[in-house]
Amino acid sequence: MSECASKGCGCTTEPIIQPTAPAPLATGSAQAVYRIENMDCPTEEALIRSKLAGLAGVAGLEFNLMQRTLAVRHELPSLSPVEQALKAIGMQAVRMDQASAEQTTKLSIAKMDCPTEETLIRNKLGTVAGVADLDFNLMQRTLSVRHANQVLPDVLVALQALGFEAQVVDTAEVASPSAAPVTTPTNWWPLGISLVTASAAEAVYWLHNGNHWSVVVLALVAVFTGGLSTYKKGWIALKNRNLNMNALMSIAVTGAMLIGHWPEAAMVMVLFALAEVIEAKSLDRARNAIRGLLDLTPEQATVQQADGTWREVGAKQITIGARVRVKPGERIALDGEVLEGRSAVNQAPITGESLPVEKSPGDSVFAGTINESGSFEYRVTALANNSTLARIIHAVEAAQGSRAPTQRFVDQFARWYTPVVFGVAIAVALLPPLFMGAAWLDWIYRALVLLVVACPCALVISTPVSIVSGLAAAARHGILIKGGVYLEEGRKLRWLALDKTGTITHGKPAQTDFVTWGNALASDSRSIAASLAARSDHPVSKAVAQAAQTDGVALLDVAEFNALPGRGVQGQINGATYHLGNHRMLEELGQCTPELEQRIAALETAGKTVVM
């Protein structure tokens, strides 16, 4: 099964491979090869083809979805239009034929989880020579930097100047719980002290009907316990000529204190700090949605050694071709192909199939799925960091970092909105006193109020937080949405096509009908069927046995019970041999008739599984 199928985009589950041999280049044309990490589906190929086909100078496109590569034949002096077009539709393209000149480094930045910080970093790194492209993922707190060789130290120094500690992420490591973003516990004491002292400042101000030295002390304690980080961020932003909301809030609070409005300054800073904590908690909750996927893969597996013995080995250390044994009830650690044994595997975490799938030699198994019954051995076909589950996790991370059209608009709007607000506030503070003879303190106060009221906190934060919260809520309910773009486009849905009934059902089969055939008595037939089903651990058999128990059907003793993998079961009751199984078993026993075939087809058309 392809990754595309596991993500449920509705495409074919067969791998699609375009010819990898490049077509002859036309005279005067050149070729550029890109690796596009989030292109593995014909839907995305069609999107890219429609976007690039209209570009002047693009002569041809060759796709390889299995390798996630795109070869562009062109007659362009610069590939900037191609790269901008790919970026506009959310494709993460990296030149493969310029690997010697450029490289991409992934950085983990613990304190980066807000669009304001992204803007600050983008502006700073935009001035660093050799930095070609920046790709932010605020949910994972990572930044991918495409840069020239030897430029990485300059990037790290620039980030440090902004107060961010960045660590280089080893992209070869498998996604694991330890590699997931660490949720920093909230220190509630500073915020609590700030809230109490700000409230006390308001109360003392009211009791004294004005300022008092205790009001000043309480307000200062509130401002610097709850707003010290805001002041630090605001100062760094001002040093880098970036008027973000931290800078606006710092200016507003400082101005309020200078003109003697101490309680208001304290309360504004406390409310801003509280809003930041709420935002961080919302993002952490959304960020943790991926933890459920990370926990699906066991850390160890039983691997056959060179001398034929079996030993527990870490999943990351297992190589392709290794022979792994899986016991009943265990999770499968790596993708592979069954070599020996038979079993039923619960693939719901990967494929969404509600019923266990029978596995026999030659069948594929996936990391993170559960071996329901039986034991088998399989050959590893993919490393831990390239398993189907690992690719799904990577797709979820990329989805969390993608931007919806509304979010891109808000980011662009806020970039101009904040300086305009600051300029209007300066005009409000200066123009009336200078040209109308108004009181300075009154209009400075109004200008500061304008800064607080017009601060783009809600504007900047609301859209990304709502999107990631929506993605997280869907993930917690087993739905993977491929980014904010598709979440936003969901409002246009009129019809929804599902590939299997298990996608919208409880995934637990239940008996709906009991039909007798021929001259058999209904009570005897049901008692025999329930007796055989009660000895099996297959979900369909359990449904038959449960229905019989509910209806009070008496069970009979079964001798020489035997499971027939992929077919059903057999056993002796009162000296006679009976079979209970599927259509395939009935055909092998030579008991299928045209009338029975017609009856089975009618039941299956209604979406029912027939057991005979």
Overview of this protein structure:
- The chain is α+β, with helices and mostly antiparallel strands and 612 residues long.
- Among the domains are: 1-99, Alpha-Beta Plaits; 298-386, Calcium-transporting ATPase, cytoplasmic transduction domain A; 522-605, Calcium-transporting ATPase, cytoplasmic domain N.
- Helices cover 44% and strands 17% of the residues.
- It contains 21 helices and 20 strands.
- The strands form five sheets. The chain has a six-stranded antiparallel β-sheet, with no helix packed on it. It has a four-stranded antiparallel β-sheet with strand order 2-3-1-4, covered by helices on one side. A four-stranded antiparallel β-sheet has the order 6-7-5-8.
- The longest helix has 32 residues, at 405-436.
- The chain is elongated.
- Residues 1-8, 10-27 and 174-180 have low confidence and may be disordered.
The span between the termini is 31 Å
Assembly status: single chain
CATH topology of the domain at 1-99: Alpha-Beta Plaits
Overall helicity: 40-55%
Secondary structural class: alpha+beta
Average pLDDT rating: 79
CATH class of the domain at 1-99, named: Alpha Beta
What is the global morphology? elongated
Sheet bearing the most strands, described? 6 strands, antiparallel
